[in-house]
Fold:
Amino acid sequence: MSRALILTLLLAIGLLLAPGCSRSSPAGTESSPRVLVGAGATLPYPLYSKWAAEYARVDPTVRVNYQSIGSGAGIRQVEGGIVDFGATDEPMSEEQLKRSPMKLVHVPTTVGAVVFAFNLPGQRELSLTAEVAAAMFLGTVQRWDDERLRALNPGRTLPSEPIIVVHRADGSGTSAALTTYLSRHDERWSTAVGSGTSPRFPVGVGAKGNEGVTAFIKSTPMSIGYVELVYAKQAGLSMAQVKNPAGRFVAPTLEALDSAAKSVPGSAATSGERIMLLDSADANAYPIAALSYVVLPLDARDRGKAEALAKFLWWAVHQGQTFARELDYVALPPPLVTRAERALRELRAEGRELLPAGG
Structure:
C-alpha cells in the first residue's frame, strides 16, 4: 500500500471519529431538519416568511421554505408534486378541483387588503369608486385631471398628465380579487376583461408580483396600480380611499380590514361555501379584502413530511395569527379558524389521519 493511500485512509478515519461528525444525519433531526417547500401567492409572503422564522424556534427539526411566485404558479406546482403546498388568494373553482390530478384541500390562513397605490408628486390623498377605477384600468379615464376624478376629489390638486397604469404580469390571486371586485360594479369591465388570476388588461404596463408592481409605482411618477397593503406600506406609497357599499370612502387601515374579516358569517365554519370578503356590508369595512389559502394534497405520499406540514399549519392558524397585525394583516375570525381546523383534520397520508383529535 502506498504512503499516499495510507495517509488518505487515516485522514478519512480521523474525520469520521471527530467530535460532532457522523456518517449520516437522519431526516428530522436538528442537524438535518425536515424541509417543507411551498410556493404561490405573493400577498401573504411577508407573513409566511415570519411564520417560517418563528416556527424554526418552536420546532427546530422543521424548516419552511416559501417562494412567492404567484397564485397560479403555486397551484400548478402543488398539482405537479413539485412543492409540498401551494398558496393562493383565489380559491380553486369546482371545475379546477375536478381537473386536478389529486384531491386538494384549502386551508384559510390570513386576510389582507388589495389597495390602489399611486405616485402623484405633491398629492398623498385620492378617493376612488369601483367604476372610476375600472375606467382608469380600461383606459377610458386617461388623465389625472379627468372630470370624473376631479368630481371625487374636490379641493385636491390633480395634474393634467397621462395616467400610467401598472398591473400584474403573472397569474395572481391579487388580480383575481381586484378583477372580481371591478366586475361586480362595472358592466363594461365585466364584459371586456372579466375576473380571474390572469386577466388581459387593455392598457398599462405589466410587472411581476406585488414586489414588481410596488417597485414600478415607487419609481414612476403619475402611475397607479394595485398591490397588497403590506407592500404599499413598506414602500411608503400613497393609497386611495375606496367607496364601500355603505357609501363611505374608506382607507385601507387595519381597523377597516378587521371589520371586513369579522363580517364573515358563522355558517362559513361548517359549510362548503366559497368565501369572498369583497364588499362587506359593515359600514366601516374596506371593500377589497382578500382571504388567502394554503392548498395541499388531501392524501400525501410522505407521511413524515405530511405530519410536519399539518402541525406547522395548525400552529399558523392559531399561535401564528398573533404575528398578523404587525405585518399589516388581520387575524382570522373564529369562523375561519374553525374552517381551517376542519380542513386540517381531513388530511391523510397512507390513508390515515395526520392530526390527533385535539389538533
Observations:
- The longest helix spans residues 3-17.
- The mean pLDDT is 89.
- The chain has two domains: 33-111+291-353, 113-269.
- The longest strand covers residues 104-119.
